[in-house]
Design goal:
4 domains; 7-stranded mixed sheet; 50% helix
Length: 759
Amino acid sequence: MIKVRIKRTVDEAMIQEAMRVEEMGLPPLIITFIKEDVPKSREAQVRLATILKDSLEFPKSILWKFAKTFNHWQEVLRPVWEATDSSGGEMDLDSLIDRTTKLFKFLYNDIQKALNHDQNVSTGRKVYADEFVKPLDLKSIKGMRKALTKNLTKYGWPPAAGKKMSLFIDEMLIEYYNNYIRGDSNGMQLIAFLNEHPDNHKDIANDTWTDAVKFAGNYFLEKEDEDMIVKTYPKKNLFWYNIGETSCSIEAGRMGHCGADDRGILFSLRSKGSGQKASDSHVTISYNENQNTVYQIKGKQNCVPDEKYGPYIVDFLEMMEIEIIEENGEHSNCDFSEFIGYLEEEYPKGQFVANKLVELQELENEIASGQFNTQNLQFDTYLEDYADDPYITITGFVSFSVPLNMLNTDEVKERFEELFISKEDEVPDDIIDLCDFDWYDSDQEDDSAFQVRFEGDKLMIQLTLHEMEGIHHARESAEDTIGEMKRSYEEDTLNGYIEEIQQYILKEFGAAFNPETQKKMQAILEKIDELEEGYEHFMVSHDEDDNEIEFKSFRLDLPIKIPQIPLPNGVSMITNRNAYKTHVKVLGDYHQSVLKLKGDIEKAFVGAVKMKHKNAYDAASRQVSLATAGMALPTNLQAPSMVKWNDSIYIPQFVEVIVHTPKWDEIKGKATKGGFLVPKYRISFTLAITIADDITDVVWGMEYIDYLDKHLTDIMKVLTRSQDFDKIKSTVSQFHRQAVQELGATLAEQKKRVKIRIV
């Protein structure tokens, strides 16, 4: 007997839809959340679970919490041991910690790999080796929980230890889902999309998270807001729709044109028959209400609208009482003359823009005579005098010099010139990347478009500017371009470029100015590991690309309660747009108020240094070692004893005190059981040393870091007990009360207006 095996192909989507979400291998908490958010459709639950399992990764904010817990796991688990071990056997506990350290080192490495992956993604470049880069996803979390609960018991920890770590993972899962799925507009849109129709999940089969949320977003974008329908023509299934924006990717895709005109709001003539899932677009109009002007009237592919839509276009002009129509066929290869003639005949009260050739010729002459030139910016032009569609192009030429005051001796100048010649080919690209000049196209092939020359004690900079649109059919738009170029290269802006270039020169060619600093840096590099071991609060790293040594502290949390303002239940961008917009506005104002306290916190920190270390400073006035740290002494002073205590204490200019403010997502995050995702102020410190730095500044900066490291704990205690700190906390509470009051009053008013409409 011959046996025949029949191979059957099974669609992957069918397999997924046949499954239950409980069979997906996800953490139970995530399964519970999915079933809560998508309660009616098993297929939609599986689809969402598949997307989360295959696509999403844990964000940096959660990764840092994992890192903190796994790095300080002894502090987390020690109370569990103490609660269950009445003998108080320190030797037993020490032995247990030794046996367990390997486990947490292994898990911490996984978190570090995930942080490296996040950095690679955020920076867009490869920072670490492939073998030490791996995202943390839901599958990894499941394995991590298993490793903890199994091995902690194996090593001898009480069962409560495994439960505590499992509870921590649960907390991270809750935070992840509530803030990055439920608390994210993309996640809410995707959930709303899956719930709207039982078959919607089929539209995103096999999609990644990025593709799925993009599809859901486009779905709701294409779903017209009835309030934005300006006029309907029921017999033809046509309607005018106010897009409400100056650009629309949906309209662009439907019509085959750019779908944008920053001069006016877009209106679309659309049709939608019975049974159509989405409407079709036929005509796009750019209309500016303030100018009472229609700038463009375009059909498919930027061409003349189909003649059958002519009456509806005229009706739009009548309805809006348009005064000026500037459509002349710009951005099109089609002949608009007959269409414009039709509009002139059917809508005689409109003012149609005449031929612009004469105006453009006048502008060409004015530009050639130098009428628009400034000290650092000159213009050139080209006029193409097509009889029916003339246009003009604008080119700008910028020139300025960068003084190199650091070339203060012949010896320094000679060293700099030698270095500059060796790197002359690299300098233009570096400056372009650094300054990001407006209007300058860095991709143009003409090498003469950007030039840097060293002359005397200056760098001479010359660049050629080309407008992005390229051509202008009207004098007004050409003059606007000239005005924008001039504003982009005003004196203040050029001074900013000059300062950036000077800093670049100092950093890149620092060896020419500060050879002693270069020696000092080399000495630091040789003992960098030994140096870092001596610090309690700081890490030391070397950036070979920038030739920079950085001293960077850990972030310290400040005990300032920052209440959240979560989105009210039942309010979303989809279900209640007005209430949602109100919440976003109030939340934004509250967030900005919180951010403005950054300077007050910095001031309070300096005050804490001053208050706590007066005695230490007085004692240090009798020596010249580390006591000079943080004290910006005048250059003519030989000892810190000559500085009075009443004078302000300043941090060296290249030591940065950083106050990290709460992020928007933290402020708006929905409070969860356990009270995590708490918005906080944090403080840290950095010192970056390059060969461009003066040797004295380098030494003082390092001394200041040493000073901070030894006294930071005491300083923070004084800071948190100060009147300035209490005032900051009180101010935050006041900001929150004001925001809540404003939100409540606005929502109450909206509710009142809704009731009036119903009556």
